[in-house]
């Protein structure tokens, strides 16, 4: 069904003359399409290929491999080729917009793009269209990037309480490393598309785990910015006070130009902050101080524990590592109360109209009713406790440059297993709820492989507005490892 | 694992059943709904702070008829359906206090589209929310602890506004 949506659009557009020229893109070797943004840009400027040829090559993969991975909702072929031609013409005229100029990318289908459906991954919204681009799409266009596809997401960003991989208009997200495993949620499409070389990079969103989890499961680098760093205008609201938009790339280094392009104040999103995003804004220490949450490395899946232990050895080559215990506060309870209450309001119409019954996952059709009766005082209490959590976390993190830990306690779950059942087998401390409710940034990068040949990942969480410091730390790690250069065989 | 048999498929469940043996019975009014009557319907004084206002004030479900996509139990309110009572919410000894009445509220609004097994899922969801609320209440708050959202007066030509 969902594939039908993507397929239908592709079929319509495939009748255009552009489709004939798409075969030209095939002259770019597939292996090259796994390159980082930095490498692609260098080759583009060296005239090894044009932006149009690069775009055609990615469109070809989006249309052939995208459906196999359930990673794509809509291929934006016509818009992409127009943008690619514009990028080529500008380069020929001596105008270079920077690192992203001529680089094809995909956007999670929660983000509005004019001319294409924006389905939010959910059947009740399969025909929804917006007549303007989200701010992040506009900003990437100004940076010369080429929108090539709207990418799959768990329906409504997973906010209805899904318990299975098959909770999306496009079917279960397939992991490029092992096709019997889930690609993660809710940004299933961006993660698998980046890992499988279907796009140069992707835009993703996170309310609570939706960037870092699929990035970890698919072995790509993901950046969750500080809340307020990136405008959410034009993106589906799940939780007004917790939603963030950030990049997924094939190296953490690539996340920086994408973040630079999309960050900054936006009058259409009053939560955006006018904050400096410059390396000069912080002093990178000679020997960074890292912290590991107490209890890490005890109850995670075996491969996760072993790979994290090896990562610590690498990190100790350039940083000190101490143990940290966060103050005992109800991070998860506050996060879930806020998220549930705001999502209940955001989707009250869907529930009240009964159209929630059209969602794909059976549990998503029922659980939202329960969120309709969260008491106002409980939500307000959560919002009153929230500043206290923010101060407590910041105080704990202040002596350190980052908290590191396994991004997830296991590799990706099998497609045919109920998600909570699989993850219940493993445990360990998590900073995810605390960091998301406090709006803190994080970067996740691959750090090895585990069960079924699936990636494991390492997460760096920092104080508010410390994205560049985190990327600098990750760069040091990735200079010493090559996990981010491994590619799945498809 | 996709259980296609589950979900709100529109299967009808009689929303009201005889209340003789049920002191918390939810009774439908035949037309309109008074605050007092709804309080009785909800069956718990503890629910008063969140009770919807009389029809026409809260809007949405309680005033919405089938023509505008309602289909919820308010259609039973309006149709003059016989006075039946909803079955009491299943009580789980581990549920936090208030789970049952809140479930009854959902049942009162949406019973015609939720099966018993669906209501069980909703009950668990409500219980989880209440457990979260209880955990939050463990954090002592002073009167001056303001919520983490800001409101400000606004005028269109305010150059100092962010």
Overall description:
The complex is a heterodimer of chains A (490) and B (162). Chain A is of the alpha/beta class and 490 residues long. Helix content of chain A is 37%, strand content 14%. Chain B has 162 residues and is mostly helical. Helix content of chain B is 31%, strand content 0%. Chain B is built from 5 helices and no strands. In chain B, helix 4 (99-110) packs across helix 5. Classes of the chains: A alpha/beta (490), B mainly alpha (162). At the A-B interface, helix 11, helix 12, helix 13 and helix 14 of A face helix 4 and helix 5 of B.
Could you tell me which chain pair has the largest interface and how many residues each side has? A-B, 50 and 50 residues
Distance between the termini of chain B: 49 Å
Low-pLDDT stretches of chain B: 1-85
Q: What is the residue-averaged pLDDT of chain A?
A: 93
Annotation, overall tally of beta strands of chain A: 13
Assembly category: heterodimer
Global structural class of chain A = alpha/beta
Properties at a glance:
heterodimer, A: 490 residues, alpha/beta, eleven-stranded mixed beta sheet, two-stranded antiparallel ribbon, 14% strand, globular, B: 162 residues, mainly alpha
Provide a concise account of the structure shown.
By secondary structure, chain A is an alpha/beta fold. Chain A is built from 17 helices and 13 strands.
Write the layout of secondary structure elements.
The complex is a heterodimer of chains A (490) and B (162).
Chain A: H1 2-14, H2 18-21, H3 37-45, H4 51-69, E1 72-75, H5 77-92, E2 104-108, H6 135-142, E3 146-151, E4 174-175, E5 178-182, H7 188-195, E6 201-206, H8 212-218, E7 221-224, E8 244-249, H9 252-262, E9 289-293, H10 302-315, E10 320-324, H11 331-346, H12 348-353, H13 367-371, H14 376-397, E11 402-406, H15 419-423, H16 432-438, E12 442-449, E13 455-461, H17 467-479
Chain B: H1 35-42, H2 60-63, H3 74-78, H4 99-110, H5 116-137
């Amino acid at each position: 069904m969902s594939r039908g949506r993507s397929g239908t659009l592709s079929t319509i557009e495939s009748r255009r003359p552009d489709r004939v020229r798409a075969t030209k893109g095939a002259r770019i070797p597939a292996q090259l399409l796994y390159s980082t943004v930095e490498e692609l840009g260098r080759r583009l400027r060296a005239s090894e290929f044009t932006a149009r040829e690069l775009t055609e090559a990615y469109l070809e993969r989006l249309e052939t491999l995208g459906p196999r991975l359930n990673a794509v909702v809509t291929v934006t072929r016509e818009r992409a080729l127009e943008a690619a031609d514009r990028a080529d013409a500008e380069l020929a005229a001596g105008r270079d917009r920077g690192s992203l100029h001529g680089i094809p990318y995909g956007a999670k289908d929660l983000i509005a793009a004019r001319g294409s459906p924006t389905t939010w991954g959910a059947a009740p919204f399969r025909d929804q269209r917006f007549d303007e681009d989200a701010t992040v799409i506009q900003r990437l266009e100004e940076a010369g990037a080429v929108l090539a596809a709207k990418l799959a997401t768990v329906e409504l960003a997973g906010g209805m309480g899904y318990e299975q991989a098959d909770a999306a208009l496009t079917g279960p997200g397939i992991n490029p490393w092992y096709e019997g495993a889930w690609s993660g949620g809710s940004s299933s499409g961006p993660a698998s598309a980046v890992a499988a070389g279907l796009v140069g990079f992707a835009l993703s969103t996170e309310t609570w785990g939706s960037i870092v989890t699929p990035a970890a499961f698919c072995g790509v680098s993901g950046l969750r910015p500080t809340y307020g760093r990136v405008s959410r205008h034009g993106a589906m609201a799940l939780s007004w006070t917790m939603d963030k938009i950030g990049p997924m790339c094939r190296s953490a280094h690539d996340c920086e130009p994408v973040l630079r392009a999309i960050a900054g104040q936006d009058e259409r999103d009053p939560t955006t902050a006018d904050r400096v995003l410059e390396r000069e804004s912080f002093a990178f220490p000679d020997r960074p101080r890292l912290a590991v949450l107490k209890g890490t490395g005890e109850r995670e899946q075996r491969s996760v524990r072993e790979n994290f232990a090896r990562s610590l050895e690498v990190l100790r080559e350039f940083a000190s590592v101490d143990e940290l215990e966060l103050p005992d506060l109800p991070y998860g309870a506050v996060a879930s109360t806020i998220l549930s209450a705001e999502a209940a309001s955001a989707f009250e119409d869907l529930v009240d109209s009964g159209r929630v019954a059209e969602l794909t996952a059976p549990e998503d059709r029922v659980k939202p009713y329960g969120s309709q009766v969260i008491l106002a005082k409980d939500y307000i209490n959560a919002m009153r406790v929230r500043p206290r959590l923010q101060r407590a976390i910041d105080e704990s993190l202040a002596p350190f440059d980052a908290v590191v830990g396994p991004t997830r306690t296991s590799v990706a779950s099998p497609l045919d297993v109920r998600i909570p059942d699989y993850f219940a087998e493993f445990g360990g401390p998590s900073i995810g709820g605390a960091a998301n409710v406090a709006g803190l940034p994080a970067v996740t990068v691959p750090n090895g492989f585990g069960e079924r040949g699936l990636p494991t990942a390492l997460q760096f969480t920092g104080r508010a507005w410390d994205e560049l410091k985190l990327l600098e730390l990750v760069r040091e790690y990735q200079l010493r490892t090559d996990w981010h250069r491994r590619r799945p065989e498809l | 694992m996709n259980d296609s048999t589950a979900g709100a498929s529109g299967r009808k469940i009689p929303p009201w059943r005889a209340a003789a043996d049920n002191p918390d019975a939810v009774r439908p009014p035949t037309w309109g709904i008074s605050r007092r009557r709804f309080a009785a319907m909800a069956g718990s004084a503890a629910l008063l702070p969140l009770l919807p206002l009389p029809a026409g004030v809260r809007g949405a479900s309680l005033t919405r008829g089938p023509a505008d996509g309602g289909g919820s139990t308010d259609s039973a309110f309006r149709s003059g359906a016989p006075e039946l009572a909803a079955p009491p919410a299943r009580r789980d000894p581990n549920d936090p206090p208030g789970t049952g009445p809140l479930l009854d509220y959902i049942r009162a609004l949406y019973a015609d589209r939720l099966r018993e097994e669906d209501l069980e899922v909703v009950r668990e969801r409500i219980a989880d929310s209440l457990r979260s609320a209880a955990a939050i209440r463990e954090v002592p708050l002073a009167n001056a602890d303001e919520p983490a959202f800001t409101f400000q007066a606004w005028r269109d030509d305010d150059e100092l506004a962010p």
